[in-house]
Write a structure and sequence with these properties.
4 helices; mainly alpha; single chain; 169 residues
Length: 169
């Protein structure tokens, strides 16, 4: 058994222990989270009726909040991509990591929320209830806004990419 240090050396250029890399979120991960959300959204309708006696009402507020978050992410992604092309001062490495993590988290959360709203909207198909069409429309609008948040998160994450020879200089 060879003696190996418990932690990698401090030198990221060491070929025995290359520096870790973060890869952008995969489409498969986004799809899995969307499917989990779809099932949860589909189950929310009958569960809320069983627990509360009535299904919960989706208003315009969630859709507006998701649109706001998506717009914020698009703005940060645009600013970051301009900085990476040299049109603006480049952010510090820790800021880039923060933006990358925010993009990934937003993409995954947006995918989950989009699936949940789609599932909830689909659960109302064929149900003759007062307010059913409104619930479907509001949930559909929130799902579209959540998809925009997912796209914005992915774009922000991609904007934080550096070249293979770039070590955050």
């Amino acid at each position: 058994m060879r003696d190996q240090p418990p932690f990698p050396p401090d030198d990221p250029e060491d070929e025995q222990h290359p520096a870790g890399t973060l890869r952008p979120v995969s489409p498969a991960a986004l799809a899995v989270w969307a499917i989990v959300g779809l099932v949860a959204g589909w189950l929310a309708h009958p569960l809320s009726e069983r627990v509360n006696g009535v299904a919960f009402q989706v208003t315009w507020l969630p859709a507006l909040a998701l649109v706001f978050v998506a717009a914020l992410l698009f703005a940060v992604g645009w600013s970051t991509s301009r900085a990476m092309r040299g049109q603006r001062e480049r952010p510090a490495p820790h800021q880039m990591v923060n933006r990358f993590v925010a993009g990934r988290a937003s993409a995954l959360a947006g995918s989950l929320v989009a699936g949940a709203y789609v599932g909830y909207a689909l659960s109302w198909i064929g149900v003759a209830a007062e307010g059913g069409p409104d619930r479907m429309i509001h949930a559909g609008a929130a799902a579209v806004a959540a998809v925009a948040m997912t796209v914005a998160g992915v774009l922000l994450e991609r904007a934080c990419r550096t070249g293979s020879g770039d070590r955050g200089a």
